[in-house]
Design goal:
single chain, mainly alpha, three-stranded parallel sheet, two-stranded parallel ribbon, 14 helices, globular
Length: 426
Amino acid sequence: MSVINFLITQVMSDAGVLFGLITLVGLLFLRRPVEEVIMGTVKAVIGFLILLAGVGLLQEATNPISAWVAKLLGVKGILPQGLMAMGIMMSSKYGGEVALAILLGFILNLILARVTPLKSVGITGHLLANWAAWVVAILTALHMSPTAVVIIASILSGLHYWLATAITHYFMKRNERLTSEWALYLPDSIGVAVASWIGKIAGNPEKRCADIKVSKRMEWLRDSIVGMAVLAAILWTVLGLAVGREAVEAVSNGKNWVLFSIFSGFKFAGGLAVLIYGVRMLLGELVPAFNGIAKTLIPGAIAGLDYPTVFQFAPQAVFIGFIFNLLGGIAATLVMIALKFPVVVIPSVWTNFWMGALTGVFADAYGGRRGTIIATFIIGFLVPFGWSLGYPLTGPLSSSGLISDYTDVSIGSIILYLLRKVFFVH
């Protein structure tokens, strides 16, 4: 068990180690010279670390407005925070079941990719863990034995690792504005599908987010990073003014409250720029190396990677998708309050960034800026209702104030809620 725990906690759950290992093995399979193996492996790990630095800046920029939004709404509720929910499960008495579900689920994913026409393999370690942790949580709430929990969770996890990657690849390879070279593994595969469909139905793919018309003197806004920095600074400043000086100074660490709001917006744009640079470095080494492994072990295998790997295709849609997903989340909270829902979901902002950015990229590719606005708002509005219904069904997490923050979890929660209603399972 100690070996399994090491593999889970030190290898599979650490994306940097996992990506470096995959790159190393892949380059060895390709019989590259030693110097190329060393350089490729190091560049993959460094690219991932640069990506993480970008994520850190984004988190610093978005965290303050979570508190500001909660204050403006004037209500307490549960937060969609998958990583924190996973941490609770991994450190609880069910941590062993989660670890086994990740490992056995990944093995099942490899087997399915080997023997079926769908060659998708999810390799985003922390997201594999997030999904398995949620599945274990809902199974323990059904009072199953530990053995049954491990078996069922492993099957459900393995199937999800495989199918979610296949779903995202389907929508990526069918649009020339994206790519067929890799896929995504994330528990937001339904969000990807819905955003693509809504974008196609409601939007116009010829009028993309990057093509918004501006006057000649405002052409500088077409620079994705500069334009995003200015718009984000305006948004952060407006929110800061709305909540007031005291609320901003509570998180500004002594910095002038207006300057803090402005520079938080700049930090958002800077974080995204750093993230995209790291993604490109990582992919430049990881994708060819993964293909080296695939040729030998699973011919035609497609790697399921993380959210940021598609942000480079539409940086403007990343920002627009984030904003409208957040607006949808705020609208959902207000409706829950008005209808007196027993569980109210508060926008965590950080979750809205990732969900909105991801679905924004796909909606933009299929339906341009109108598709992006409509799809990300609808998804941001509807998904929290599934989280609200599913929260009481998560066993060890049902008193934590946290719920896994993904569209697939929302749909899974609705299905589970209806099944329990139909079959009177308590």
